[in-house]
Design a protein that fits this description.
The protein is of the alpha+beta class. The protein is built from 14 helices and 6 strands. The model has no long low-confidence stretch (mean pLDDT 92).
Length: 328
Amino acid sequence: MSLDPLVAAAQAQDRGAFDAVVAPHLRALKTHCYRMSGSWTDAEDLLQESLARAWKGLASYRGASSVKTWLYAVTTRVCLDGRRARTLPMALGPHTPGHEPPGAPAEEIDWLEPMPGAPEDEPLGPEARLTVRQSVALAFLTVVQRLPPQQRAVLLLRDVLGFSAAECADLLETSVASVNSALQRARASTGVEPVAPPKVKDEREAALLGRYMQAWESADVALLVSLLGEGATLSMPPFTAWYSGVEAIAAQLRGMAMPPEAAGRRRVVLTQANALPAVAVWRLDPSTGKHAAEALHVVELTDDGKIASITAFMDPRVFQGFGLPAEL
Protein backbone atom coordinates (compact mmCIF):
# COMPACT_ATOMS: atom_id res chain seq x y z
CA MET A 1 0.00 0.00 0.00
CA SER A 2 1.52 3.35 -1.07
CA LEU A 3 1.68 6.07 1.55
CA ASP A 4 0.63 9.68 1.22
CA PRO A 5 3.71 11.66 0.07
CA LEU A 6 3.59 13.83 3.21
CA VAL A 7 3.54 10.75 5.44
CA ALA A 8 6.40 9.23 3.48
CA ALA A 9 8.38 12.45 3.83
CA ALA A 10 7.69 12.49 7.57
CA GLN A 11 8.94 8.91 7.83
CA ALA A 12 12.13 10.13 6.18
CA GLN A 13 12.58 12.45 9.18
CA ASP A 14 11.13 15.58 7.59
CA ARG A 15 9.79 17.37 10.68
CA GLY A 16 7.91 19.94 8.60
CA ALA A 17 6.06 17.13 6.82
CA PHE A 18 5.20 15.52 10.15
CA ASP A 19 3.82 18.80 11.47
CA ALA A 20 1.70 19.14 8.33
CA VAL A 21 0.38 15.58 8.74
CA VAL A 22 -0.73 16.05 12.37
CA ALA A 23 -1.90 19.69 12.15
CA PRO A 24 -5.51 18.91 11.07
CA HIS A 25 -5.94 16.62 14.07
CA LEU A 26 -4.37 18.64 16.89
CA ARG A 27 -7.51 20.23 18.35
CA ALA A 28 -9.45 16.96 18.20
CA LEU A 29 -6.59 15.02 19.79
CA LYS A 30 -6.25 17.56 22.59
CA THR A 31 -9.99 17.33 23.23
CA HIS A 32 -9.66 13.55 23.42
CA CYS A 33 -6.85 13.97 25.95
CA TYR A 34 -9.10 16.31 27.93
CA ARG A 35 -11.98 13.85 28.01
CA MET A 36 -9.63 11.08 29.08
CA SER A 37 -7.88 13.12 31.79
CA GLY A 38 -10.48 15.66 32.92
CA SER A 39 -7.83 18.40 32.85
CA TRP A 40 -7.19 20.96 30.13
CA THR A 41 -3.71 21.52 31.57
CA ASP A 42 -2.89 17.81 31.52
CA ALA A 43 -4.41 17.54 28.04
CA GLU A 44 -1.69 19.76 26.61
CA ASP A 45 1.03 17.69 28.29
CA LEU A 46 -0.57 14.45 27.09
CA LEU A 47 -0.86 15.79 23.57
CA GLN A 48 2.79 16.79 23.47
CA GLU A 49 3.83 13.38 24.80
CA SER A 50 1.62 11.72 22.18
CA LEU A 51 3.16 13.75 19.38
CA ALA A 52 6.64 12.85 20.60
CA ARG A 53 5.72 9.15 20.56
CA ALA A 54 4.11 9.49 17.15
CA TRP A 55 7.25 11.14 15.74
CA LYS A 56 9.43 8.38 17.19
CA GLY A 57 7.14 5.57 16.07
CA LEU A 58 6.13 6.89 12.66
CA ALA A 59 8.38 4.39 10.91
CA SER A 60 6.05 1.63 12.13
CA TYR A 61 3.04 3.15 10.35
CA ARG A 62 2.26 1.10 7.24
CA GLY A 63 -1.02 2.67 6.15
CA ALA A 64 -3.30 -0.20 7.24
CA SER A 65 -5.51 2.42 8.92
CA SER A 66 -5.91 6.15 8.39
CA VAL A 67 -3.37 8.54 9.90
CA LYS A 68 -6.18 9.86 12.10
CA THR A 69 -6.89 6.41 13.50
CA TRP A 70 -3.20 5.75 14.06
CA LEU A 71 -2.79 9.07 15.92
CA TYR A 72 -5.76 8.25 18.13
CA ALA A 73 -4.18 4.89 18.91
CA VAL A 74 -0.93 6.54 20.01
CA THR A 75 -2.73 9.25 21.98
CA THR A 76 -5.14 6.88 23.73
CA ARG A 77 -2.29 4.67 24.92
CA VAL A 78 -0.53 7.72 26.36
CA CYS A 79 -3.74 8.75 28.15
CA LEU A 80 -4.14 5.25 29.62
CA ASP A 81 -0.96 5.70 31.64
CA GLY A 82 -1.72 6.09 35.34
CA ARG A 83 -3.32 9.36 36.40
CA ARG A 84 -5.75 9.92 39.22
CA ALA A 85 -9.38 10.44 38.24
CA ARG A 86 -10.75 13.97 38.56
CA THR A 87 -14.09 14.92 40.03
CA LEU A 88 -16.53 17.70 41.00
CA PRO A 89 -18.24 18.37 44.34
CA MET A 90 -21.58 16.77 43.45
CA ALA A 91 -19.89 13.41 42.94
CA LEU A 92 -18.48 13.42 46.47
CA GLY A 93 -21.60 13.46 48.63
CA PRO A 94 -24.98 15.05 49.35
CA HIS A 95 -25.63 18.75 48.96
CA THR A 96 -24.87 21.24 51.72
CA PRO A 97 -27.61 23.19 53.54
CA GLY A 98 -27.78 26.77 52.30
CA HIS A 99 -26.92 28.31 55.67
CA GLU A 100 -23.67 26.35 55.95
CA PRO A 101 -20.50 27.96 54.54
CA PRO A 102 -18.43 25.94 52.08
CA GLY A 103 -15.52 25.53 54.48
CA ALA A 104 -11.89 25.34 53.38
CA PRO A 105 -10.80 24.44 49.84
CA ALA A 106 -9.93 20.77 49.39
CA GLU A 107 -6.63 21.24 47.61
CA GLU A 108 -5.71 17.57 47.91
CA ILE A 109 -8.50 16.53 45.52
CA ASP A 110 -7.82 16.38 41.78
CA TRP A 111 -10.62 18.55 40.43
CA LEU A 112 -12.12 18.41 36.98
CA GLU A 113 -11.10 21.47 34.97
CA PRO A 114 -13.12 23.45 32.42
CA MET A 115 -12.31 23.30 28.73
CA PRO A 116 -12.16 26.54 26.71
CA GLY A 117 -14.72 26.83 23.95
CA ALA A 118 -16.29 23.79 22.33
CA PRO A 119 -15.00 20.91 20.19
CA GLU A 120 -17.12 21.94 17.25
CA ASP A 121 -14.25 21.36 14.83
CA GLU A 122 -14.02 17.68 15.76
CA PRO A 123 -15.27 15.30 13.05
CA LEU A 124 -17.33 12.57 14.69
CA GLY A 125 -17.48 9.09 13.16
CA PRO A 126 -20.71 7.53 11.90
CA GLU A 127 -21.20 5.40 15.04
CA ALA A 128 -21.07 8.29 17.51
CA ARG A 129 -24.09 8.26 19.83
CA LEU A 130 -23.59 11.44 21.85
CA THR A 131 -23.75 15.06 20.74
CA VAL A 132 -20.71 17.30 20.87
CA ARG A 133 -22.21 19.20 23.80
CA GLN A 134 -22.93 16.00 25.71
CA SER A 135 -19.40 14.80 25.11
CA VAL A 136 -17.84 17.67 27.08
CA ALA A 137 -20.61 18.23 29.62
CA LEU A 138 -19.18 18.49 33.13
CA ALA A 139 -21.63 15.93 34.52
CA PHE A 140 -20.72 13.45 31.78
CA LEU A 141 -16.98 13.94 32.27
CA THR A 142 -17.32 13.48 36.02
CA VAL A 143 -19.01 10.11 35.51
CA VAL A 144 -16.55 9.09 32.80
CA GLN A 145 -13.65 9.84 35.12
CA ARG A 146 -14.92 7.19 37.54
CA LEU A 147 -14.67 4.45 34.92
CA PRO A 148 -11.64 2.15 34.77
CA PRO A 149 -9.24 3.59 32.16
CA GLN A 150 -9.94 0.89 29.55
CA GLN A 151 -13.72 1.34 29.83
CA ARG A 152 -13.28 5.11 29.67
CA ALA A 153 -11.26 4.81 26.48
CA VAL A 154 -13.77 2.43 24.86
CA LEU A 155 -16.75 4.64 25.73
CA LEU A 156 -15.10 7.77 24.34
CA LEU A 157 -13.80 6.07 21.20
CA ARG A 158 -17.12 4.39 20.41
CA ASP A 159 -19.90 6.71 21.65
CA VAL A 160 -18.16 10.09 21.29
CA LEU A 161 -15.72 9.71 18.41
CA GLY A 162 -17.71 7.09 16.53
CA PHE A 163 -15.02 4.51 15.86
CA SER A 164 -16.35 1.06 15.00
CA ALA A 165 -15.85 -1.85 17.39
CA ALA A 166 -13.20 -3.29 15.05
CA GLU A 167 -11.33 0.03 14.83
CA CYS A 168 -11.54 0.41 18.59
CA ALA A 169 -10.16 -3.09 19.11
CA ASP A 170 -7.27 -2.30 16.80
CA LEU A 171 -6.61 1.00 18.59
CA LEU A 172 -6.46 -0.68 21.99
CA GLU A 173 -4.78 -3.87 20.78
CA THR A 174 -7.57 -6.08 22.06
CA SER A 175 -10.50 -8.09 20.68
CA VAL A 176 -13.86 -6.91 19.41
CA ALA A 177 -15.52 -9.03 22.11
CA SER A 178 -13.50 -7.24 24.79
CA VAL A 179 -14.42 -3.86 23.33
CA ASN A 180 -18.14 -4.70 23.26
CA SER A 181 -18.02 -6.02 26.82
CA ALA A 182 -16.21 -2.92 28.10
CA LEU A 183 -18.64 -0.66 26.25
CA GLN A 184 -21.65 -2.42 27.74
CA ARG A 185 -20.26 -2.02 31.26
CA ALA A 186 -19.29 1.60 30.67
CA ARG A 187 -22.73 2.51 29.30
CA ALA A 188 -24.39 0.84 32.28
CA SER A 189 -22.18 2.80 34.67
CA THR A 190 -22.70 6.21 33.06
CA GLY A 191 -26.36 5.89 32.11
CA VAL A 192 -25.87 8.60 29.46
CA GLU A 193 -28.29 8.48 26.54
CA PRO A 194 -28.36 10.59 23.38
CA VAL A 195 -30.50 13.72 23.68
CA ALA A 196 -31.69 16.39 21.31
CA PRO A 197 -29.87 19.74 21.37
CA PRO A 198 -31.28 22.24 23.89
CA LYS A 199 -34.13 24.41 22.65
CA VAL A 200 -33.08 27.67 24.27
CA LYS A 201 -32.96 30.33 21.56
CA ASP A 202 -29.89 32.50 21.15
CA GLU A 203 -31.75 35.74 21.89
CA ARG A 204 -33.25 34.38 25.11
CA GLU A 205 -29.92 32.93 26.18
CA ALA A 206 -28.12 36.21 25.53
CA ALA A 207 -30.68 38.16 27.56
CA LEU A 208 -30.45 35.72 30.48
CA LEU A 209 -26.65 35.82 30.48
CA GLY A 210 -26.74 39.60 30.37
CA ARG A 211 -28.88 39.64 33.51
CA TYR A 212 -26.64 37.04 35.13
CA MET A 213 -23.57 39.21 34.53
CA GLN A 214 -25.42 42.28 35.78
CA ALA A 215 -26.35 40.41 38.98
CA TRP A 216 -22.72 39.62 39.75
CA GLU A 217 -21.49 43.13 38.99
CA SER A 218 -24.15 44.72 41.20
CA ALA A 219 -24.23 41.96 43.85
CA ASP A 220 -27.98 41.65 43.22
CA VAL A 221 -29.00 38.36 44.81
CA ALA A 222 -32.69 38.83 43.98
CA LEU A 223 -31.91 39.28 40.28
CA LEU A 224 -29.69 36.21 40.15
CA VAL A 225 -32.18 34.07 42.04
CA SER A 226 -34.92 35.07 39.59
CA LEU A 227 -32.88 33.41 36.85
CA LEU A 228 -32.61 30.03 38.57
CA GLY A 229 -34.63 26.97 37.67
CA GLU A 230 -36.42 25.10 40.42
CA GLY A 231 -33.78 22.38 40.81
CA ALA A 232 -30.74 24.57 40.17
CA THR A 233 -27.38 23.66 41.70
CA LEU A 234 -24.30 25.65 42.65
CA SER A 235 -20.85 24.12 43.10
CA MET A 236 -17.51 25.85 43.63
CA PRO A 237 -14.47 23.60 43.23
CA PRO A 238 -12.03 23.39 45.05
CA PHE A 239 -14.71 23.55 47.79
CA THR A 240 -16.40 20.20 48.34
CA ALA A 241 -19.69 21.83 49.41
CA TRP A 242 -22.43 22.25 46.83
CA TYR A 243 -25.93 23.68 47.06
CA SER A 244 -29.23 22.54 45.56
CA GLY A 245 -32.44 24.51 45.13
CA VAL A 246 -33.25 28.19 44.87
CA GLU A 247 -33.48 28.82 48.62
CA ALA A 248 -30.18 27.16 49.47
CA ILE A 249 -28.35 28.99 46.67
CA ALA A 250 -29.89 32.31 47.68
CA ALA A 251 -28.82 31.82 51.30
CA GLN A 252 -25.28 30.98 50.24
CA LEU A 253 -25.01 33.98 47.93
CA ARG A 254 -26.32 36.42 50.52
CA GLY A 255 -24.05 35.09 53.22
CA MET A 256 -20.81 34.68 51.27
CA ALA A 257 -20.50 35.66 47.63
CA MET A 258 -22.86 38.63 47.29
CA PRO A 259 -22.99 40.74 50.45
CA PRO A 260 -24.17 44.31 49.79
CA GLU A 261 -20.62 45.67 50.05
CA ALA A 262 -19.62 43.60 46.99
CA ALA A 263 -21.71 45.80 44.68
CA GLY A 264 -19.54 47.40 42.00
CA ARG A 265 -16.44 45.43 42.99
CA ARG A 266 -16.58 42.81 40.24
CA ARG A 267 -15.88 42.87 36.53
CA VAL A 268 -17.21 40.12 34.26
CA VAL A 269 -16.59 38.87 30.72
CA LEU A 270 -18.67 36.37 28.74
CA THR A 271 -16.80 33.41 27.26
CA GLN A 272 -17.46 29.73 26.56
CA ALA A 273 -16.44 26.51 28.33
CA ASN A 274 -17.37 22.90 27.63
CA ALA A 275 -19.70 24.02 24.83
CA LEU A 276 -21.67 26.09 27.35
CA PRO A 277 -21.76 29.79 28.17
CA ALA A 278 -19.25 30.80 30.82
CA VAL A 279 -18.62 34.00 32.74
CA ALA A 280 -15.17 35.03 33.91
CA VAL A 281 -15.27 37.08 37.11
CA TRP A 282 -12.63 39.41 38.52
CA ARG A 283 -12.98 40.97 41.99
CA LEU A 284 -11.43 44.21 43.24
CA ASP A 285 -8.38 43.73 45.45
CA PRO A 286 -8.30 46.82 47.72
CA SER A 287 -4.61 46.31 48.42
CA THR A 288 -3.65 46.75 44.76
CA GLY A 289 -6.59 48.65 43.33
CA LYS A 290 -6.83 46.06 40.57
CA HIS A 291 -9.42 43.41 39.84
CA ALA A 292 -7.95 39.94 40.40
CA ALA A 293 -9.26 36.74 38.81
CA GLU A 294 -11.84 35.21 41.15
CA ALA A 295 -13.75 32.45 39.33
CA LEU A 296 -14.90 31.07 36.01
CA HIS A 297 -18.62 30.25 36.05
CA VAL A 298 -19.83 27.54 33.67
CA VAL A 299 -23.58 28.06 33.29
CA GLU A 300 -25.95 25.33 32.12
CA LEU A 301 -29.44 26.33 31.02
CA THR A 302 -32.75 24.52 30.95
CA ASP A 303 -34.87 24.19 27.80
CA ASP A 304 -37.26 26.83 29.13
CA GLY A 305 -34.55 29.45 29.59
CA LYS A 306 -33.62 29.15 33.26
CA ILE A 307 -30.30 28.36 34.91
CA ALA A 308 -29.95 24.65 35.69
CA SER A 309 -26.48 24.74 37.23
CA ILE A 310 -23.59 27.03 38.03
CA THR A 311 -20.16 25.48 38.37
CA ALA A 312 -17.86 28.22 39.63
CA PHE A 313 -14.24 27.18 39.26
CA MET A 314 -12.59 29.18 42.02
CA ASP A 315 -9.01 28.48 40.97
CA PRO A 316 -7.70 31.58 39.12
CA ARG A 317 -5.19 29.38 37.30
CA VAL A 318 -7.93 28.20 34.94
CA PHE A 319 -8.00 31.70 33.42
CA GLN A 320 -4.70 31.06 31.66
CA GLY A 321 -6.12 28.21 29.57
CA PHE A 322 -8.85 30.59 28.34
CA GLY A 323 -6.39 33.31 27.41
CA LEU A 324 -7.83 35.53 30.16
CA PRO A 325 -5.67 37.89 32.24
CA ALA A 326 -5.07 37.33 35.94
CA GLU A 327 -5.75 41.03 36.60
CA LEU A 328 -7.78 43.83 35.04
